[in-house]
Amino acid sequence: MDSFRITVVSSDSMEIARSEASSQLKTGPGDFYRWERLHEKVKTVLRAYGTATWDPDPLPDFYFSGDWFHENSDGYSICSSRPITRDLLRQLPTILSSHHDDAILEMNGTEPPIEGLVIFATSKEVLVAWDGLDRRECEQRLRELSIELD
């Protein structure tokens, strides 16, 4: 396998990690075509686990609005718990590190029952949290949805 960690954290710890990782990104959006390459790599992996598209009808597993903010950052909405697996999450740091050491990916649950789920990946780790919940509460929600990450 790989040496990347998947860690369940509190909402507060997630916010700190996102802030620290985002501060490593250079100022400005950078090169759109470089971002597009990152986006295509991420989308290819996501599509191995479910639907990934900008078209919300029908609701896909992973939705992307078309916005981009930085060449080393990407983001998706998660509309279904079905594709969230340990295997998927373990692939994310490899994709990000092949793009740039500071690359980040954030995926947010937007539909019940995963609304509030936050998955944040860097080239070194994947953090999983739920908005407003501590680590123990997040672990409980994951168990209730049969999402096994370890």
Question: Into which percent range does the helicity of residues fall?
Answer: 25-40%
Total of DSSP H or I helical runs spanning 4+ residues: 4
Strand percent estimate? 15-25%
Q: Main β-sheet: number of strands, strand sense, barrel status? A: 7 strands, mixed
Mean pLDDT: 94
Q: Regions with pLDDT < 50 over 5+ consecutive residues?
A: none
Euclidean distance between termini CA atoms: 13 Å
Strand order of the largest sheet: 1-7-6-5-4-3-2
**Order of SSEs:** EHHEEEHEEEH
- Structural class call reads alpha/beta
List the domain count as a whole number: 1
Strands, total number:
7
Radius of gyration: 14 Å
Shape: globular
Question: Overview of this structure, please?
Answer:
There is one protein chain. The chain is of the alpha/beta class. The protein has one domain. It is built from four helices and seven strands, in the order βααβββαβββα. Helix 2 packs antiparallel against helix 3. The radius of gyration is 14 Å and the shape is globular.
